[in-house]
Amino acid sequence: DDDGDGDVSVVTKTKPKTAKPPLYKVLLLNDDYTPMEFVVLVLERFFGIGHSHAVEIMLTVHKKGVAVVGVFSHEIAETKVAQVMDFARRHQHPLQCTMEKEE
Ligand code: TYC
């Protein structure tokens, strides 16, 4: 306070912080049957990834077995997984998409 004695204190408050909600990685898994172009279409359609990057991610999954395709809130990640699994099922491809909590 400025109480007239010459020194002026400044009050700083720290806001009590609420914990941030956890994030979830959405993973695409390799298999031997899903066509490469179908995986690229999935990445473009459901994750908004541009064609060239989608091809790169697809090839990473093809070579390494799995790749993270995005990081989302629990609700958005669940929706992405459901959309991909439903789209793959409707086209009779065995493509698998899962989610896991980020560290
Ligand atoms: N391995 C598949 C093939 O050779 C291609 C593929 C890539 C499948 C990525 C799934 O998540 C995947 N046709």
From TrEMBL:
Entry annotated with the keyword Methyltransferase: no
UniProt entry keywords in alphabetical sequence: Hydrolase, Protease
TM region(s), chain numbering: none
Single annotated GO MF: peptidase activity
InterPro entries named among the record's database cross-references: ClpS, ClpS_core, Ribosomal_bL12_C/ClpS-like
Keyword Acetylation belongs to the record: no
Origin superkingdom: Bacteria
Adaptor protein ClpS core domain sequence ranges: 20-98
GO BP terms: protein catabolic process; proteolysis
Assembly and oligomerization: Binds to the N-terminal domain of the chaperone ClpA.
Family, per entry: Belongs to the ClpS family.
Physiological role: Involved in the modulation of the specificity of the ClpAP-mediated ATP-dependent protein degradation.
Protein name: ATP-dependent Clp protease adapter protein ClpS
